[in-house]
């Protein structure tokens, strides 16, 4: 089975910063031309609220694109369920997204009343899968903390999975292969982002330029798991070529039987 490769619109980070008038709606056709049928929309790049989300959804349907929704917020704020969580699910529903992704946030133990509140939201939107992604906060997103949450959620029958961000685990200085070992049963989506340690910290890179052997990591995940390219792919002169190259590189790995 060939892997399905998603393009996260973070690929356009540099271009969005250079052209504030550009929107995610404007780039859908360009992303499709680079060979992608699956696109992860980022909430922080939505400039006109719900109306823009509706327009993105309509255009994606016309172009036969599958959308996913990335929200740069936390599921829990100081151990309390995020009060705007249902709004994020509503936006994901407007997008016709099959998933909505957040970070875990600050939570030590999932209590029954918290689980019940979370179930009320997920049961209202049964077609949308809640995914939790590891961010670059070591305390909140180390693999053992995430594993504990997933085990607790399972006890309460809360439907939730994990987005495994390869580069982020490297940034918090956790061995990526140990992270996979701890979290593999819960992973439903992989963010392909490498990272490189520099004199001033860590920087995100493409597949081949970072410190982590991406090919070796991807071998550990079954081919049914979605993989999303999620890092800035440069400026206008290079982004199309970069998107096509990275997608083809992953597909080539898969065709050779290495993934």
Notes on the protein architecture:
The protein has 259 residues and is α/β, with parallel strands linked by helices. It has a single domain (5-255), classed as TIM Barrel (Alpha-Beta Barrel), CATH 3.20.20.150. Helices cover 41% and strands 24% of the residues. It contains 11 helices and 11 strands. The chain has helices at residues 13-18, 24-33, 49-62, 85-95, 112-124, 138-141, 143-155, 166-171, 176-183, 214-218, 239-255, and strands spanning 5-8, 38-42, 66-77, 80-81, 99-105, 129-133, 160-165, 187-192, 194-198, 201-205, 226-229. The protein has an 8-stranded parallel β-barrel, surrounded by 5 helices. A hairpin with a 2-residue loop joins strand 9 and strand 10 (201-205). Helix 7 (143-155) packs parallel to helix 9 (176-183). It is globular. The chain starts with a strand and ends with a helix. 40% of the residues are buried. The model has no long low-confidence stretch (mean pLDDT 95). It comes from Cytobacillus gottheilii. InterPro entries: Xyl_isomerase-like_sf.
């Amino acid at each position: 089975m060939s892997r399905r490769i998603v393009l996260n619109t973070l690929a356009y980070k540099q271009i969005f910063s250079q052209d504030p008038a550009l929107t995610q709606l404007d780039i859908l056709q360009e992303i499709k031309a680079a060979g992608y049928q699956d696109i992860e929309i980022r909430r922080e790049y939505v400039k006109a609220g719900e109306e823009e989300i509706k327009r993105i959804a309509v255009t994606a349907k016309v172009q036969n694109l599958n959308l996913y929704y990335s929200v740069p917020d936390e599921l829990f704020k100081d151990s309390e369920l995020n009060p705007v969580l249902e709004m994020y699910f509503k936006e994901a529903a407007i997008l016709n997204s099959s998933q909505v992704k957040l970070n875990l946030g600050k939570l030590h133990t999932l209590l029954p009343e918290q689980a019940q509140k979370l179930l009320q939201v997920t049961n209202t939107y049964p077609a949308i899968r809640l995914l939790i992604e590891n961010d670059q906060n070591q305390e909140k997103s180390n693999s053992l903390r995430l594993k504990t949450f997933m085990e607790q959620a399972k006890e309460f029958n809360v439907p939730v999975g994990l987005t495994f961000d390869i580069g982020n685990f490297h940034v918090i200085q956790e061995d990526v292969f140990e992270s996979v070992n701890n979290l593999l049963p819960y992973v439903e989506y992989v963010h392909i982002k490498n990272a490189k340690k520099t004199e001033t910290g860590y920087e995100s890179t493409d597949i081949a330029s970072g410190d982590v052997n991406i090919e070796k990591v991807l071998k550990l995940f079954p081919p049914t798991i979605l993989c999303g390219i999620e890092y800035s792919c440069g400026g206008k002169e290079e982004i199309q070529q970069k998107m096509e190259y990275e997608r083809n590189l992953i597909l080539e790995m898969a065709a050779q039987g290495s993934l």
